[in-house]
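Thread title: Can someone regenerate the structure for this chain?

I was given the following input by a collaborator and told the matching structure tokens would be attached. They weren't. Posting the sequence so someone can regenerate them.
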Amino acid sequence: MLDAETKSKINKLWDAFWSGGLSNPLTAIEQMSYLIFMKRLDDLDTFRKNQAQAKGQPYSSVFEGREDCRWSKWRHMSAEAMFKHVSTVVFPFIKELHNGQDVLYSKYMKDATFMIPKPSLLQEAVTIIEDMTQTTGEKPDIQGDVYEHLLGELKTAGKNGQFRTPRHIIRMMVELVDPEIGQKICDPACGTGGFLVAAYQHILKKHTTPEMVKFDEDGTPHGLIGDKISKKEHWNLLWRETFYGYDFDITMIRIALMNMVLHGIVEPNIEQIDTLSKRFPQKPIYDVVLANPPFAGYVDKSDISDNFKLDTTKTELLFVELFHNLLTVGGKAAVIVPNGVLHSSSNAHIKARQLLLENADLQAVISMPSGVFEPYSNVGTAVLIFVKGGKTEKVWFYDMKADGYSLDQKRDFINGKGDIPDIIQKFKAGRTESDKSILVPFAEIKKDYNLSFSLYKKVEHEEVEHEDPEVLIENASQLEEEIAKELQELKAMI
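Best answer:
Regenerated them for you:
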């Protein structure tokens, strides 16, 4: 968990990058990523070397013959010397890494550009990162926390409607689909990798002794060591064959890779590709899909994958079909969609809803308040939970009124929970009904395939008791006599 001093240092780092000329938040976080990456590479290499020595095994260092590229060797240099050394020696070395399981590093750095503009900024950043982070092999949690806090400062939306999904909303969605070891988990519009990291943490939490798990006030878990995972093959599955993310933005790919590596996922499967395009093979191989894809815009019709049956170029509808197409039969999805997907009357919108209702079991539609995505957007959204295969019998609608933060642009912390615990409890208890939730049979929805909560919510009619007409007439007569009497008394006084 990050203390106030560490958070203050991160904020100072942001301020330094901003005043140093890197005003684009994504560019700044990318440059910070490279430095954290350099620190981690040295830490991890030292950790692996010590492990090998303890076991009496040989070890080949990634720094063989290039010890001058270790973070620990150059971090104490003067500002000018450090700037020259990192930009001309260390950065090119990092980009050219090709060494067994370290291929991930070279892939991550493939098209990277060193853009830190001046020596003083580099030196300040290195000092802060050194202070904040611990040895990766021993405490990946710390570096993950630092990185998450850095990502939390991204306050501007990216291109085509990209914006960071609040982590407590992500954790709610992951809790509802409840992923497990052995499942393949995919986010086809992964952004910074938040859904995949949360899914990993959820699995670890289920396999960590409860007394060891601690939570921040916002619900962020810590101490997730997975001590109940005893089989090596299970760890290998988690680290190498569980998490799959795709995004068309190379900056997002680099950030997602670093985010996952710093949270302890050794080899995440992250690829730069447009998952709506012909270049992406839509194979039904994933057990869990978690996503909050870009809503805005359209796709060039000539580039849309031939796998789509929906006749549309709207990204929000194509992603709905994509989620379905990527799942194995029995696979489960928790995804965010704009409210237009729930009720718009175009043929493509209706067919998208028919797909979810008739070719899947649409288990839940959770409407969220429009302020959830402030300060990026005030668009109204909903979470859809569905299982591929079969047919929908009943849909559970929940009208979320609060998420534990203020619903304005400030998004001030209230309790970090709002209706979320109630949503999880009621969903897991069999999708129970309440003043905020209802179960609606498919037969009722089939009339027009509308998924708006307001269409089905029960309206409470308050019964008003009316007095007997004869009593009302009697009361009126008495009142009339009293008024006449008072008038007589007034006349007598004149």
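Residues 116 and 122 are 7 Å apart (CA to CA).
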